[in-house]
Design goal:
The protein is mostly helical. It contains 9 helices and 2 strands, in the order ααββααααααα.
């Protein structure tokens, strides 16, 4: 309350001084004119002095009005600055919230895709376990069957070709390619895609790498490019060169 009264007093203080100054100058001018002129012109000079007084007061009022407008503009400018600062703080807060939601959405999306890839790897292993072959009178299954196939019949192209046409082998190859294509088409960044492809690679045995490249013909450019895109070709080259 005291601050408000002090602010009001400070606002009108210049006006008071202006009025006092104008009146003081008018009084000095009036008495100076009376003192210096004769009595005949005194009465007429009083009307001129009154006009001068009102003119001075009007001028003082104009100056005071300009001062009030200037102060009001300064107050509006300060208010605008505070509003802009508040809006900026709200915008920064909103932007940070948006970024957090985007990161959360990206993490959730990656976890979902990762879960699907793990499921596809499980399907890949399940299909491979269904494959079986006979070696030296013994029936082998899954990865053992692959080891026996390539290490015991590596030079028997006709036999290998017949085995590679096996229904479970073809399903296995299709699952591998589908998994890599699924990773490539996923809405995640390249680093995350490579991480998922590396997970598949780590859970793929050497004999499986041999099977994949023996099953995919040279004409299957898309499948070969897909394997190269995620680094499977380097592992294949390491095994044979």
């Amino acid at each position: 309350m005291e601050d408000k009264q002090k602010e009001v007093g400070n606002t009108y203080k210049p006006m008071i001084w202006l009025i006092v100054t104008v009146v003081l100058l008018w009084v000095i001018n009036l008495f100076t004119g009376i003192w210096l002129k004769d009595d005949g012109g005194t009465f007429g000079d009083m009307f001129g002095a009154v006009n001068a007084l009102f003119s001075g007061l009007a001028f003082a009022g104009l100056i005071f009005t300009i001062m009030l407008q200037r102060k009001d503009l300064a107050l509006q400018y300060r208010t605008l600055e505070l509003q802009l600062k508040e809006m900026k703080e709200q915008s920064d807060s909103s932007k940070e919230t948006t970024n957090q939601l985007e990161r959360q959405q990206q993490l959730t999306s990656y976890q979902l895709i990762q879960s699907n890839v793990n499921n596809l790897i499980s399907i890949k292993n399940y299909v491979l376990d269904k494959y079986k072959t006979r070696l030296n009178g013994e029936v082998l299954r899954g990865t053992e069957a692959l080891d026996g196939l390539f290490f015991s019949h590596s030079h028997n192209e006709e036999y290998l070709k017949g085995e590679l046409d096996d229904f479970n082998i073809q399903r296995y190859i299709a699952t591998i390619i589908y998994t890599l294509q699924f990773i490539l088409d996923s809405d995640i960044d390249d680093k995350q895609k490579q991480t998922l492809a590396d997970t598949l690679n780590l859970q793929t045995l050497d004999s499986e790498i041999v099977l994949i490249y023996r099953s995919i013909s040279a004409k299957s450019q898309h499948e070969l490019a897909l394997l190269k895109r995620f680094g499977f070709n380097k592992r294949h080259e390491y095994l044979f060169f």
